[in-house]
Amino acid sequence: MSTQTKVERIGLVVHPHRALSQALETVQEWAAGHDGEVVQVPIDGQERVVTPAGDAAACDVVLALGGDGTMLAALHAAAQHGKPVLGVACGSLGALTATTAEELDGALDAFAAGDWHARRLPGVAVSADGAAPGVALNDLVVVRKGASQVAIGLHVDGELYVRFAGDGLVIATPLGSSAYTMAAGGPILAPGSDAIVLTPLAPHGGCCPPLVVGTESEVWIDVESGHAGARIEFDGQIQDLSPKRLELTWRPDHATLVKFDGAERLLAGLRRRRILMDSPRVLARDDRAQATTRR
Asked: Count of CB atoms within 10 A of residue 5's CB?
């Protein structure tokens, strides 16, 4: 458990268009009743304004009102200043949210009382052509811009793994391994894994299965974009980069997520959202067993 905290300033990161009135009203009333202030943490590209702007560095906690996309934006903003992020599901219950809009008042009470755990999230720092690195909490994607292919060369600890031409490459953390990586045929990394998974996107021929590498490994990726070019996405956000080489570095404990006792675990959440599903044969067997029991 964490220590009791006087919450004097709450920072908000909001979904661009979901209905947030209930959550916003709860936050404002809770802050007013605890001599606190509510500000909105500026996010690049975010035009929706719900309260005056404020710096995440001066906040005791950052609330993400929305879903997992909003959570990632809040985590990036808060990680720069070591601030915890409390995810509030508004419209859908994602993998990272800790509470719902209906239960937000109690969640804020629990946070202030110190009745929460810090879930540390690692990131992958990616340097493009030797520049200052950006950090991905979910994944970084190199993907073709147009009709031409991208040629990728993967190197691990000074050894060439494979070269391939295709749509691109997904570089994912354990958290991100159940997102784009899984959709592209890569493995899910179990909670607690310290590893990075590299998943080729639609490789054209050859043999280049997804690769899981240890966090201490030295990994670099050579990129040859076709005539249409290639783009880079950090956690779904397009970056104005056209690198020839990417170098990876593991960042343990990069961001902090607020977690309460009894929170849904990762694999259970994936099953609830039907991202993971049992095979039809197994489900049919369960149906037959239930039908027999009811007789």
From this structure: 14
66's tokens: 């929305």
Q: Which of 100, 75, 107 is nearest to 11 (CA)?
A: 75
Least confident of 78-82, 100-104, 141-145, 271-275: 271-275
Between 272 and 58, the higher pLDDT residue = 58
Of the candidates 276, 273, 267, 274, the residue with the CA atom closest to the CA atom of residue 93: 273
Q: Does residue 68 have an active-site annotation?
A: yes
Taking the C-alpha atoms of residue 108 and residue 98, their distance in angstroms, rounded to an integer, is: 11
Residue-wise pLDDT tens digits, 42-64: 998 889 999 999 999 999 999 99
> 22 burial class (0-12, 13-18, 19+ CB within 10 angstroms)?
middle
Q: Which residues, 6 or more positions from 186, have their beta carbon under 8 angstroms from its beta carbon?
A: 170, 172, 177, 197, 199, 210
164-202 pLDDT, tens digit each: 999 999 999 999 999 999 999 999 999 889 999 999 999
Q: What sign for the dihedral angle of Cα 136, 138, 142, 146?
A: negative
- Give the H/E segment covering residue 152: strand 150-156
Rounded to the nearest 5 degrees, what angle is found at the Cα of 255, between the Cα atoms of 70 and 71?
10
Q: What is the chain's length?
A: 295
Write out the two tokens for 150.
């991208």
Answer whether 18's CB lies under 8 Å from 90's CB.
Answer: yes
Q: For the segment 88-127, what is each residue's pLDDT rounded down to a tens digit?
A: 998 776 778 899 999 999 999 999 999 999 999 999 999 9
What is the torsional sign of CA 160, 161, 167, 168?
negative
Active-site annotation holder among 55, 60, 68, 286 = 68
